[in-house]
Amino acid sequence: MTFDSQHSDSQRTDSELSGSHLAADGQRPDPKRPVDPTLAAALTGPTLVHALVFLAFGLTTVFWQQPTLGVITVMLGLYMLGYAGASYLTAQTLRSVGDASTAQAFTSIALVQAAGGVLAFVAPRGEFWLTLIAACVLGLTGVLKLLAGMRTKASNPAARDWQLEGAIVTLSAAALPVVSEIGDKAIMGTAGGGALVAGIFLAVGAFSLMSLHQKTI
After folding, report:
1. In what ranges is there compositional bias, type Basic and acidic residues (predicted)?
2. In sequence order, what are the residues at sequence separation of 6 or more whose Cβ sits closer than 8 angstroms to the Cβ of residue 158?
3. E strands within 22-110?
């Protein structure tokens, strides 16, 4: 046997042993969701809060069949304020685990959403202003969430959820100016439909984060 063949066999054996060790310890990273049990546990709560905000608004739009413009304004304003609270909770959680840069991004998102919620109440009452505020705030929110998820997808177990949320919210925001010509109900239905879909995905994401934490204990 030559030296080259012995060296090749040695490398192959080391590789196999390393692979077996990773499999036995269960530490091989999930290509879809990075394994960080501490971060997964920390983000389970904020992700679930996001889901509840989305589902509460989305389900309300489903069962409230004849809302007036005033009701829609109040609901969208409260929705954006609740969304801001959930984003701020995420920012504080990220800051507590040492991810200051992503925490700052979520703080900025929360400020945009809170400003949108306040503007919905103080702006002149009308479909134009309501559509403009909701489309701009939700559109910017969606893009920022999408970028945050893409930037942290290799290290954050919630990054995939942020990407899904960002894409859904951005699409629903882009549709608002189009459907606003139909009437008040179409505005609320479009925003509520996007919220409902995002809420379902984030509820699944929250339980996935919880499961990830429990599996690594």
Report:
1. 1-15
2. 39, 40, 43, 47, 149, 205, 209
3. none
Phi/psi at 57 (5° precision): -70, -45
| 213 φ/ψ angles, rounded to the nearest 5 degrees | -65, -45
Q: How far apart are CA 125 and CA 168, in angstroms?
A: 27
d(CA 22, CA 36) in angstroms, rounded, equals 16
Tell me, rounded to whole angstroms, the distance of Cα 214 from its chain centroid: 21
Maximum separation of any 2 CA atoms in the chain, in Å: 87
In the chain, count H helices and then E strands. Answer: 7, 0
Report the alpha-carbon distance of residue 66 to residue 64 in Å, rounded. 6
From the list 141, 154, 155, 51, the residue with the least C-alpha distance to 105 is 141
- The tokens for 181 are 């010509």
- Is residue 15 predicted with pLDDT exceeding 70? no
DSSP result, 31-47: SSS---HHHHHHHHHHH
Give CA–CA dist 132/109, Å, rounded.
18
**Smallest Cα–Cα separation from 169: which of 25, 50, 45, 42?**
50
Percent of the chain with pLDDT over 70: 82
CA distance 122 to 176: 20
The pTM score is 0.81
